Protein 1
Amino acid sequence: MPMMHVRVNPEKCQGHARCIAAVPEIFEEDEQGHSFARDEQVPADLVDAVRLAEQNCPELAIDVTDD
Ligand code: F3S
């Protein structure tokens, strides 16, 4: 089964933190106030939440891939 992977593009992220509020199990704030994915492999029970975070990032900084 394909595994969903998530990354935050540091060039695009402006620190809106919606992703961190929505899925703190995955997204974490770094020292610059930007988000990063603490675990790039998304557990099955968080797939829907991560997809929603991807859609709700105003900077389109969240990249999701199935591989
Ligand atoms: Fe950055 Fe978007 Fe999250 S701007 S902090 S990836 S909501």
Protein 2
Amino acid sequence: MYLTQEEESILEGEHGPTLKKAMEILSTLGDIYGADSLIPVKSAQIAGVSYKTIGDAGLEWISDLEGTVVVPSILNPAGMDLERWQEMGVDAKFASKQVQIVEAYKRLGVRCECTCTPYYIDKELAAFGDHLAWSESSAISYANSVIGARTNREGGPSALSAALIGKTANYGYHLDENRVPTIGFEVDCKLTGADYGALGCLAGAQAGSGVPMFRVRSKQYDTELKALCAAMAASGAVALYHVEGVTPESGQQEFPEETIIIERGQIDDVFDEGCGKECGNGYGEGYKNGCGNEPDLVALGCPHYSASELEEAARLLEDHTPAKEVWICTSRRVRDANPDLVRRIEDSGAKVFVDTCMVVSPATDRFGCVLTDSGKAFKYVPNLCGVRARIAHINECLAGEDSD
Ligand code: F3S
């Protein structure tokens, strides 16, 4: 990969060991993937924040770095609500390590905003055509597909390197030729809400790391496109998709010849999967806890809820006590901008947690089965928390007793 004189001097270590390390990571990736050069990035979103996922080795790596990021940079969710971690059931030792990780990122100039929905908190972070270095898989797909920005599936270290250098290697989804759809999906039924998470579970598994293009009968809300991003990134490795007539680059693309039809029955089957029918009350291989045959935690907000989703939850919880413990995850910024919605939700007994989520927090691990409206959480909670999961529409998730 071609490097400018200044980039060469960074690689030689003339600007200090941290930038040398960052340039080594970027140039190695560029060489592996055949990039021609480095290109400037508008922003970085850095994964590798939860102590649950990076442990002491990750904390040590970040703590050893010096210098300051040169583009706006924010963090992925941490392992706990940074203020209300005790209410989540996180222990003090974990909390102390988690705070050290966030402080280490702050020393590098990274904004202490821990969210997988950066596009809800700052429109300046990504616009159509911008090159980015983002590393949370649903955010990557949203940036590429819904915004029309351009980012590869960065790892935490490569996103942080891009934040420190202000550039990334020019390969993959930064190039037009890799944004062409490779597989078509015709959805033969109307979809709403969590149906998009279920669709993502099906389509992601078929598409793998390809670029799906959808023909869908119903019009999608932004939050439904977000749910589709997240589920396809979890059941496959989809980083970009198009929806005919909806997403910003779809007009430049041909609908692929290889097309799969998705029918209502297949979507319904996803909702019937999970622990409900077959698992009984057993512990089962790979699962930590018995589930009592019923979900014991409702976890919403994967990806982090928008204001409109908080509003829907508040409406469903009006005069109503949910039957189970309920966590709703969102970003600190969205929570703080909507105090009335948060109050209405919490008056019901549900909790609105920020900075974290049900997948990257160790607090989920004590439950037996998680009920969620997210295709991504449905796929990841069993694998990353060792806890069973089911997916349902939000009204079923929040069902409970009327309180009068
Ligand atoms: Fe976000 Fe956590 Fe889901 S990072 S996309 S809420 S798994």
